[in-house]
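Form 7-S
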Amino acid sequence: SCPCQWSPTWSWQRTRTHAEVSRDLAEQARRAGLPGRFDLDNLHAISISERNANGRSLSVQVTDRSGRTFTMDASRLRSAFNTSRKRSDQLPSGNCSYRMLDRTVLIQGRGHGHGAGLCQYGAEAQARSGMSMQRILAFYYPQSSIEQAWT
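Output:
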């Protein structure tokens, strides 16, 4: 088992109503200077259109019921979904997927959004089990080496 599974953000999900998503997307589209021709009140799909080498989403494609699409930066979408929401209802990370349901959008994700690769909960669990700092760092950063930076 992964030592990070004890993190409260190991795996999470949030829901947004179609109305909330439409409002948030319309505001972000306006800020991005996109033309108002998209029917954001009639969403059809939200999907990841580009990922980085680690699988984290870079851009998201939004499609309305007429088939018109626009693409936006994934971090901008996350920001839109987090604006004016209490912390417990925010998306902890942009490392997520979107599924359109009947009246809501289900957003499922993992992690806390840093993308640095080290889980503090997992590192703590490994340290408590007696693992050395060097082995913990090697677990999270297998291609790295520890070197003294001063003489």
